[in-house]
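As the next step, I needed to go through one protein, both as residues and as discrete backbone shape codes, included below for the reader:
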Amino acid sequence: MKKVLILLSVLILLPIFVSGCGKNENELLIGTEPTFPPFEYMDEATGKIDGFDIALITEMAKRAGYEVKVSNVAFDGLIAALQSGNIDVVASGMSITDERKASILFTDPYIDAGLSIVVSKNNSSITGEKDLKGKVAGVQIGTTGADEANALKEKGILKEVKTYNTIDVAFLDLSNGAIDCIINDGPVNEAYIKKDSSKSKIVGDVLVSDQYGFGVAKGSEELVEKLNKALGEIKADGTYDKLVAKYFSN
């Protein structure tokens, strides 16, 4: 009987123990892939993930009553991580598209973005989309840049689309001559070029205009509402402009 009572006591306490080991209800788990400056990147000085997206979602979460914990997640795995509950919010320069909206929810747009073409500094043969015939483009897997490049390949314009897990490797291949161009988000292209303007340049007009939003799992409408309210306050009181100045002026 004593053993039975002990067992029953353990079974009664077990759910309490398990629930106590879970995530704090006031904590948001943020998923990001930190190779996309100035939106998200690894700060070499601190060893932590930083960037415009991270600073903005942290401030939004704070005003909505949450703390944040940021995790490094491969870009093409972010939506799956959100759907499985491993993260609560995607903050990773994610464009709002109809395809993604079928799988997840988005907050209100927080920045306008668009795709641009990057070529080597000494490349004079590519001046825009019209010159991409027969060329090899580098893109990051799972991005709108990859979608656009594949569409251009299907049209018989691009000869090949080379896919990379992270966009920094694409820039390395561009400098090595392994690809002819990169199709990627304009602000990110500008950030990479600022690091070393002697290696690459942006050519032509914006290929596709789009907007970024923070991704949230389906069924989390209340969280989206809280984050949208916080975003509106941040834009209204000047905090948003300060973050833009901090992360886009350097």
Residues 26-110+213-248 form a domain with the D-Maltodextrin-Binding Protein; domain 2 fold (CATH 3.40.190.10).
